[in-house]
From TrEMBL:
<dbReference type="GO" id="GO:0016757">
    <property type="term" value="F:glycosyltransferase activity"/>
</dbReference>
<dbReference type="InterPro" id="IPR001173">
    <property type="entry name" value="Glyco_trans_2-like"/>
</dbReference>
<dbReference type="Pfam" id="PF00535">
    <property type="entry name" value="Glycos_transf_2"/>
</dbReference>
<keyword id="KW-0328">Glycosyltransferase</keyword>
<keyword id="KW-0808">Transferase</keyword>
<comment type="similarity">
    <text>Belongs to the glycosyltransferase 2 family.</text>
</comment>
<feature type="domain" description="Glycosyltransferase 2-like">
    <location>
        <begin position="16"/>
        <end position="108"/>
    </location>
</feature>
<dbReference type="InterPro" id="IPR029044">
    <property type="entry name" value="Nucleotide-diphossugar_trans"/>
</dbReference>
<protein>
    <submittedName>
        <fullName>Glycosyltransferase</fullName>
    </submittedName>
</protein>
Length: 333
C-alpha cells in the first residue's frame, strides 16, 4: 500500500467518452458525467447510425464538446481521436479520464480526484469499476499486475488463477492508492503532460477494439511511469452480459480482434517468455470453438486462424470491412 504524498494537485480534469449506436446507455452516461464538475467533456461519436448525432447536437452544456467521426474507428480509434483533441486543443486540461458509453462516474469522482496528491512519477490512475448495482465488482475492469514483471505474482497464478495477479477485493475496500501495472479504459486517468511532451503516445487506433487499453497502460509503465489504483474513485459499467467471463463473442468478427490483439498484448507483457506463452495460449484460442454453436464452428476456426496469423506477423493492416467479411456479417458492435 502507498500513502498519498504532499504533492500539489495537478489541475483541470477532462472526460473522454466514445460512443457507437448505444443512445439509451449514452443518455445515462452523459447525465451522470454532467453531474460531475469536469472541466470539459469530449464525446467521440463513432459514426453512429441511430439518433446519437442529433441527440448530442441538441445538448447545450458549454462543457460538452462533440466530435463526429465520419467512420467507425472502433474504441481504440475513438479514444485516439479523443485523447488527441484534449491534448492538442484543450491546453488548460491537465488530466483526462476516459470511459465507454455504457459506463459512467459516480457523483463524487471529480471531487475525490481533486483531493488527491499525485507524485510526478505517477502517470495514470485507475478507478474502481462496479456493475450497475454499485456493489458487484466489474471483473472485466479489475486492475492487475503483469505477472512477468513480478515473480511473486507469476508464481501466484499457478494456484490462484487470474487472482494471482489481479487486484484483490480487499484493495477495493481500502482508501489508499495501490501501485498496479494496468487496467481498462473505464475510469482510466492519464496525465496529459506525458502525451504533450512525447513521453507516451496515443492509444493505438489500428487495434480497433480489445486490449488497446491494457496495452496503452503497459506502454506507459514501460516508459517509466507508475499506475495507481484509486479505490475511492468509483465508476459503474453496465456490462452484465460479461459477468460469466466466458470467452465467446458475437458477432463473430469480434473473435478476430480478440485473438490478434491478445497476441500483441502477450508479446508486450511477456517479453522473453513470449514463445512459451504462445505454446500455452494459442491452442486455447482454437479450443474455444467448443463454446460456439455447431453451425458457427467452422467460421470461428477460420477467423481464429487469420487472427493468429496476423497477430504473429504484427500485421494490423486489415481493414474493419475485411474483418467483418471474414464472418460474412454486416458491420455491428
Amino acid at each position: 500500500m502507498l500513502s498519498q504524498s504532499n504533492v500539489p494537485h495537478p489541475g483541470n480534469l477532462a472526460a473522454v467518452i466514445v460512443t457507437f449506436n448505444r443512445l439509451d446507455k449514452l443518455k445515462e452516461t452523459i447525465a451522470k458525467t454532467l453531474d460531475n464538475a469536469f472541466y470539459r467533456i469530449v464525446v467521440v461519436n463513432n459514426a453512429s447510425t441511430d439518433d446519437t448525432a442529433g441527440w448530442l447536437d441538441s445538448l447545450s452544456d458549454p462543457r460538452l464538446l462533440v466530435i463526429h467521426s465520419e467512420t467507425n474507428l472502433g474504441g481504440a480509434g475513438g479514444f485516439n481521436l479523443g485523447f488527441a483533441h484534449v491534448a492538442e486543443d484543450l491546453p488548460d486540461a491537465d488530466w483526462l479520464v476516459c470511459f465507454d458509453d455504457d459506463a459512467y462516474p459516480e457523483s463524487n469522482v471529480v471531487d475525490t480526484f481533486n483531493t488527491l496528491s499525485i507524485p510526478e512519477d505517477v502517470g495514470s490512475l485507475a478507478g474502481a469499476v462496479y456493475l450497475p448495482d454499485g456493489q458487484t465488482i466489474s471483473e472485466m475492469n479489475r486492475p492487475s499486475n503483469n505477472p512477468f514483471w513480478h515473480f511473486g505474482e507469476f508464481l501466484g497464478t499457478a494456484g490462484k488463477g487470474r487472482m494471482g495477479f489481479h487486484v484483490s477485493d480487499d484493495a477495493y475496500r481500502s482508501e489508499t492508492p495501490l501501485d498496479v501495472d494496468t487496467s481498462s479504459f473505464v475510469g482510466c486517468f492519464i496525465r496529459l503532460a506525458n502525451i504533450r511532451k512525447g513521453k507516451i503516445g496515443l492509444p493505438r487506433s489500428e487495434l480497433f477494439i480489445y486490449a488497446d487499453d491494457i496495452i496503452y497502460v503497459l506502454d506507459s509503465r514501460r516508459a517509466g511511469f507508475r499506475h495507481w489504483f484509486v479505490p475511492t474513485m468509483r465508476f459503474r459499467h453496465d456490462c452484465e452480459t460479461l459477468i460469466n467471463q466466458q470467452d465467446v463473442y458475437h458477432p463473430l468478427w469480434k473473435v478476430y480482434y480478440t485473438y490478434r490483439n491478445r497476441l500483441e498484448l502477450f508479446r508486450i507483457a511477456s517479453g522473453w517468455f513470449f514463445p512459451l506463452v504462445l505454446l500455452i495460449k494459442v491452442p486455447k484460442f482454437f479450443l474455444t470453438y467448443r463454446h460456439y454453436e455447431v453451425s458457427e464452428r467452422r467460421k470461428f476456426l477460420e477467423i481464429t486462424r487469420q487472427a493468429v496469423k496476423d497477430g504473429l506477423r504484427r500485421d494490423f493492416s486489415r481493414r474493419h470491412s475485411e474483418v467483418v467479411s471474414l464472418a460474412n456479417l454486416e458491420e455491428g458492435r
